[in-house]
Write a structure and sequence with these properties.
Layout: E1 2-7, H1 15-26, E2 31-36, H2 50-53, H3 64-73, E3 76-84, E4 87-88, H4 90-97, E5 110-117, H5 124-139, E6 143-151, H6 162-173
Parallel strand pairs: 1-2, 1-3, 3-5, 5-6
Antiparallel strand pairs: 3-4
Helix pairs in contact: 1-6
Length: 175
């Protein structure tokens, strides 16, 4: 199985990336690619609908076209995001919004989401992200394999939590 993991954190060595790396490590036997979307040049959807008129191709010439091809080729797409103002990071949300131009090519994928925030797990941000992700998944006929909220506020904090790292490896192992 081809697994594409999209890291929406702009921080190098972030808690989000560390957890996604654990999922990747657990997914032995699969072809796994981890992409830091913050390093890509991706413009926001312009809502121009040109993609609807020209066969799903966006008029913007940026890094999203190549990412979309990776998403189309993947059997499973995993999303990781830090919590920014009760939602998905802007870097990852840009990529999700741009699926408007190529959503048909990524229907019926298996997907998962890891959201890492500083608030306790009963905070509203995890519910809001889960609900938004569920709506996106329903619209694109995605099968949601997991949504994993994680509370971690300090840089590198997750690396000191072996039970959490093991849980992420187990998620990867179930893919």
């Amino acid at each position: 199985m081809k697994i594409l993991i999209l890291n929406g954190s702009p921080r190098k060595n972030s808690n989000t990336r560390a957890l996604l790396e654990q999922i990747a490590a657990g997914a032995q036997g699969h072809q796994v690619q981890l992409v830091d979307v913050a390093g890509l040049q991706v413009g926001g959807c312009r809502g121009c609908d040109a993609c609807r008129k020209n066969g799903g191709s966006c008029v913007q010439r940026d890094d999203f076209a190549a990412l979309l091809e990776q998403m189309r080729a993947a059997d499973c797409i995993l999303f990781g995001t830090p919590v920014y103002f009760w939602g998905i990071s802007a870097q990852l949300k840009l990529c999700i919004d741009r699926l408007y131009a190529g959503g048909e090519g990524i229907l019926h994928k298996q997907v998962g989401m890891v959201a890492v925030g500083a608030d306790s797990l009963d905070g509203p941000q995890y519910r809001l992200i889960a609900e938004q992700f569920a709506c996106i998944a329903e619209h694109l006929s995605w099968q949601v394999l997991f949504q994993e909220p994680v509370s971690a506020s300090e840089a590198g904090e997750v690396l000191g939590r072996p039970e959490l790292l093991e849980r992420m490896r187990q998620i990867g192992g179930r893919l």
